Amino acid sequence: MTEKPEESLETRLKRLGDDIASKRTDKSDDVETRAAESRQGYAAAMKLSSEFIAGIVVGAFLGYLLDHFAGTGPWGMIVLLLLGFCAGVLNVLRSAGLVATPDQGRRSPGNDKKDGDGA
After folding, report:
1. Are 71 and 84 in contact (CB under 8 A)?
2. What is the rounded distance in angstroms from the CA atom of residue 105 to the CA atom of residue 119?
3. How far is 114 from 118, CA to CA, in rounded Å?
4. Where are the compositionally biased (Basic and acidic residues) regions (predicted)?
5. How many domains, the chain?
6. Please, are residues 66 and 72 in contact by the beta-carbon 8 Å criterion?
7. What is the value of pTM for the model shown?
C-alpha cells in the first residue's frame, strides 16, 4: 500500500472515463444498426403496399373503361376490381417470397438440357 490516495483516484478516474467512452460508442453503433433496420422495414412495407394498391387501381380503371365503352353497367368494374385485388395479393406474396414466380418452375436443374443434345 505504498500508493498515494491521489494516484489511486486518478487511475480510477481514467479507468471510469475509458469505460464510459466504450459504452457510448457501443450505444451509438446499436442505435445506427436499429435505424438502418427500421429504414429497411419501411422500404419493404412501402414496396408491398404500393404493389397491392397498384393491382387494385389498375383493375378498377380497366373495369371503368370497359363499363364506359361497352356499356356493361357496374359488372365490368366489379369483376375487374376483384381480379385486380387478386392480382395485388399475388404480387405481394411473390414480392415477399411466399409464392414462386412462374419462371422458377421451368428452370429446375433437371430441365437444363440444350436443344442440340441428342438426349
Report:
1. no
2. 21
3. 9
4. 104-119
5. 1
6. yes
7. 0.59
